[in-house]
Specification:
The protein is α/β, with parallel strands linked by helices. The chain is 36% helix and 14% strand.
Length: 444
């Protein structure tokens, strides 16, 4: 994407934050999961919307695995999984990991699970290229893309094939599984989707890594891997494969197996995951008012010029831009704190329920930056909503003076917890609805 295109996207995104609410269908779904570094969970049955909303506001997770296709999946019936559900999660900031669990390895002792879920055909064929397994892999990719498209999961999204554990020392079982996954990846590429494979570190992931190193070119490898290794360590490493494979930006690790977790009073049985995909959590550049900077470390009060004092022009220009974006100021961005700017300040203060004054206070900065939609922000979040948080926190605490980069890392979570403690909220490090409410009220 060109710099001009990126800037145009950023301007549009800012406008959408301040625009009245529109149904999710009015906005195209983004490719998922995209660039992301943070925590996720997966569960057999896609949770209800209420559960997703509660966990968005209270849990550490921002990514969720969902089973969209495959005859061998345990939860064939997915009553919550609809295009509306998909669009709603993406709009609110969730990253989705769509999973297919179809034919499994021919030597698996757990499959077939039902009467109509064939396993991968282990016959090698005349040239040892496992043609039947390849046909199955292409067919599963086509089914997965059809299911994804029907749900509104768009091209360039990653679709994951779930290949459960098997005996990788069985040659025909191993090679047919590799042929199947190679065909899965090739067909997904033809259909403009990104290929992912989930498997146990000691079987499916190991054979993919061995082929990568020992037989390069023998099979087409997936773009991304999802490692099942329940070692309790929230990273993407495992001793079963080499450190350089699918790095940077191509790994997920399921580091805890099935267990109950309760957040916000809602309990779900989940696996825990850590994701490091693409560029990690990435915030594209923003442009405001033709290039006005809003990203300062400090946001002091702005007062009428008097004596030898005049408010700093760069901060006044930022205020004029902020008020312009919120529909209160239509003058030139002069950097001068004059009558037109003061009139816009007072109009904003009156409409937002603040004391009307000729002074633009730190509390006004906090509230103005927080104005807009209150989607939860947490570790892994990135973009304009995180910038809103970071600017508001800098305005609320003049000693903070953080760099505003639009990426919600541990430092931002630490700053959010400190803010929550100051304003009497539970210190979760998640900018949830109650935290947005305090920020919009100008609390510091």
């Amino acid at each position: 994407m060109s710099a001009r295109s990126a800037a145009a996207v950023a301007v549009l995104a800012v406008a959408m934050v301040l625009a009245p609410f529109r149904p999710a269908a009015a906005e195209p779904n983004p490719a998922t999961p995209g660039d992301f570094r943070g925590y996720g969970f997966d569960q057999c049955l896609a949770p209800t919307q209420r559960a997703m909303d509660v966990w968005l506001n209270h849990s550490p997770f921002l990514a969720v695995g969902i089973y969209i296709s495959g005859n061998s999946r345990a939860c064939r019936s997915q009553p919550n999984l609809t295009p509306r559900w998909i669009g709603t999660q993406l709009r609110k900031g969730w990253r989705l990991l769509p999973i297919t669990l179809g034919p499994q390895a021919s030597c698996s002792d757990r499959f077939p699970r039902y009467h109509d879920d064939p396993v991968i055909v282990g016959r090698p064929g005349r040239h040892d290229n496992y043609p039947a397994a390849r046909r199955q892999g292409r067919a599963e990719a086509e089914k997965a893309v059809a299911a994804a498209g029907a749900l509104g999961i768009v091209p360039r999204s990653t679709l994951w094939y779930d290949l459960e554990a098997f005996d990788h020392t069985d040659r025909h079982c191993r090679e047919s599984a590799l042929a199947f996954l190679s065909a899965w990846t090739n067909k997904l590429h033809d259909l403009r989707y990104v290929s992912g494979v989930y498997s146990s570190a000691g079987s499916g992931i190991k054979i993919l890594d061995d082929v990568r190193v020992q037989r390069p070119g023998a099979y087409t490898l997936p773009d991304r891997i999802w490692i099942a290794r329940w070692d309790g360590v929230a990273n993407t490493s495992t001793s079963y494969i080499r450190d350089d494979g699918w790095r940077p930006g191509g790994r997920v690790k399921q580091y805890l197996g099935g267990h109950d977790e309760t957040w916000g009073g809602v309990t779900i049985n989940i696996d825990r995951n850590y994701l490091d995909l693409g560029r990690g959590s990435f915030a594209p550049p923003e442009e405001h008012c033709g290039g006005v900077n809003l990203d300062f470390r400090r946001f002091p009060a702005l007062r009428e010029p008097s004596g030898g004092h005049a408010p700093p022009a760069n901060k006044v220009r930022a205020l004029q831009c902020l008020l312009q974006e919120r529909g209160h100021y239509d003058g030139k961005l002069t950097g001068t704190y004059g009558p037109a700017t003061i009139a816009a300040v007072q109009e904003w203060q009156e409409r937002r329920g603040f004391p009307v004054s000729t002074t633009w206070s730190p509390a006004n900065w906090v509230a103005a930056f927080a104005q807009g939609r209150d989607y939860a922000q947490k570790i892994g979040s990135a973009g304009l909503h995180v910038r809103r948080v970071q600017r508001a926190l800098n305005a609320a605490d003049p000693t903070l003076q953080r760099v505003v980069n639009g990426i919600f890392r541990r430092t931002t979570a630490q700053d959010v917890r400190a803010y929550q403690r100051r304003v009497g909220l539970r210190a979760t490090g998640i900018v949830n609805e109650r935290t947005w409410e305090k920020l919009r009220g100008g609390r510091g």
